[in-house]
Amino acid sequence: MDYLVSEGYPSAAQNFALEANVHPRVDIESIEERVVIRNAIYGGDIQTAIERINELNPQILDRDSALHFALLRLQLIELIRNCTVTPDGDITPALTFATTHLAPRAPTSPEFLQDLEQTMALLIFPPDNLAPPLAALLDTKLRKDVAKRVNEAILRSHGERTRSKLLELVRTRAWAEQKARDAKKDIPDRIDIGLDPDNNGRDLEGDSVMHGNGEAGSTAT
Question: Would you tell me which of 34, 40, 67, 200 could form a disulfide with 45, CB atoms 3.0–4.6 Å apart?
Fold first, then answer.
């Protein structure tokens, strides 16, 4: 249950609570606010994400300069992405944004300065011939990484767990298994944890599949 809450799946959390006949203290509105912010970042609308974060709690970015810089840098990347789509794209908006919002912050941290210099290099080299470190900046995975940091920051501001117990359990199990393999313990190549329906006799029909927006859909045909 706490996985669905912390990862931002309000509809799935409600459905789970109903099916399990439990009544946890779940702030659906708070989850939905995080979902809106997450989706804005996923869609490259960083300005909206920043505005919604500040409406939710302006101290989140005031107290976390690294996260604030990461969001502004991502916003600069999106501006660069838009202006480099065509050969004659106007880079003025990207330059103006970098000068106004990022340049004043860069000297406060060597990491900020390095990140800004690396990002500005996207304006120098053609987007179809970038070195791997620069190409990674245009990968949408960066949006997901920043969105994850934002989600965790919001949860911390609410005094909530940033990682679900289920996720911690899975990671602990993986760590323990790797330690056993490193110690040359006699364990199977693959350890079944009982989640495969084909191995435990359960039928997939009627099971629910959680979509990206947290809605549940049936796998039955």
Answer: 40
Measure the CA–CA gap between 124 and 166, rounded to whole angstroms: 45
Tokens found for residue 195: 């989640």
Nearest alpha carbon to residue 101 among 110, 111, 112: 112
| Cα 170-174-176 angle, rounded to 5 deg | 115
Cα 215-220-221 angle, rounded to 5 deg: 120
Give which of 62, 120, 122, 126 is closest to 96, Cα–Cα.
120
Euclidean distance between the first and final Cα of the chain, in Å?
A: 27
Backbone angles phi, psi at 216, to 5 degrees: -105, 135
Q: Which two tokens stand for residue 171?
A: 């990671």
Model confidence, pTM: 0.65
Strands 216-218 and 208-210: antiparallel
Contacts of residue 210, defined as CB under 8 A and 6 or more positions apart, other chains included, come to 9, 12, 216
